[in-house]
From TrEMBL:
Keywords: ATP-binding, Nucleotide-binding. Gene3D superfamilies: Phosphorylase Kinase, domain 1. One of its GO terms (molecular function) is protein kinase activity. Residues 9-120 form the Protein kinase domain. This is Protein kinase domain-containing protein. SUPFAM superfamilies: Protein kinase-like (PK-like). PROSITE patterns: PROTEIN_KINASE_ATP, PROTEIN_KINASE_DOM. InterPro entries: Kinase-like_dom_sf, Prot_kinase_dom, Protein_kinase_ATP_BS.
Length: 120
């Protein structure tokens, strides 16, 4: 099975990826819940380390941009967590730093993406 994050979240398959990160299907092993976890991984600033889990952040300006972006990523997760149970915003359950990056734990929501909905 996949990597265990924060002592409780088991990483599953990739749900999507973009320029700033990867979203995974995950399982909370403590509560036995299906979740989604977004990992902060901006491709212009970092890459996966040889251990397959941690990140290797590029040096110089890219490293500075990574640090700034990571702080913003976690602040956004903190802000979204305050909108608990808002009908238009996915519920953020937790956020944390690990393996040299940040993670945002959210409810896993089934349905179409905004892109697919626009094309329908």
């Amino acid at each position: 099975m996949g990597t265990l994050l924060d002592g409780r979240y088991r990483i599953g398959r990739v749900l999507g990826h973009g320029g700033f990160g990867i979203t995974y299907l995950a399982r909370d092993e403590s509560l036995q819940l299906r979740l989604a976890i977004k990992e902060y991984l901006p491709r212009d600033c970092a890459t996966r380390a040889p251990d397959g889990v941690s990140l290797a952040v590029y040096s110089g300006q890219a490293g500075e941009q990574f640090a700034y972006g990571l702080d913003r990523f976690l602040e956004e997760a903190r802000t979204l967590a305050r909108f608990d149970q808002h009908p238009g915003i996915v519920t953020v359950k937790s956020f944390f730093r690990a393996h040299g990056t940040g993670y945002c734990v959210m409810d896993s929501v089934e349905g179409l993406t905004l892109k697919h909905r626009a094309l329908a």
